[in-house]
Amino acid sequence: MWSMLFWMSTAHSGTGPAEDKRWRVVNDTVMGGVSTSVVTPHPEGGVVFSGELSLANNGGFTSTRTADISADWSGFDAIQMTVIGDGRTYIASVYPKTGWPSRIYYRQPFETEAGQALTVTLPLSDFEAYTYGTRRPDAAPLTEVAHRVGGIGVLLADKIAGPFSLRILRLEGVSDPEQ
Q1: Collapsing DSSP states into helix, strand and coil, what is residue 148?
Q2: Considering the entire predicted model, what is its pTM?
Q3: CA angle 2, 87, 43 (to 5 degrees)
Q4: What is the rounded CA–CA span in Å between residue 117 and residue 83?
Q5: Is 5's pLDDT higher than 80?
Q6: φ and ψ at 58, to 5 degrees?
Q7: Coil, helix or strand for 178?
Q8: pLDDT in tens, 92-108
Q9: Confidence of residue 161 (pLDDT cuts 50, 70, 90)
Q10: CATH for 153
Q11: Count of domains observed in the chain
């Protein structure tokens, strides 16, 4: 197995500025919704993506994504994330570097257990293509565009209004995740 660490808490790695600055928030407010979220550093490492999911005004999603990571994932079979969740289902998202107007991104859901640290392995071949929340079966699979990844993110859109919290401790690309 080989891996590449795309993101890890600076509280433990000492590799640079606060990692929460690499993440930006995109909520349903872009379409009139009122959900809120923030990304903050956790004192024991990692970042926390938290806020309030609202279904008001036809809303119902909140997300965060990394700033440009410019990565070649063609040698990886999966993404592994170590997270501490709240029992909700989140969606991992991968954003390839593509030109306008395609706006295609890839996503795959993952479960969390309240208060439990989990390492989630998400095979690249299981990610599905979307544009603006609509499934795009005509798009190339993520495995074919993995050489031009531009960012990764997490989306919450489980139609359950209320507070949420997901701590992201580690995020990396791995090959041969079964070994």
Answers
A1: helix
A2: 0.86
A3: 65
A4: 6
A5: no
A6: 60, 25
A7: coil
A8: 999 998 755 568 999 99
A9: very high
A10: 2.60.120.430
A11: 1
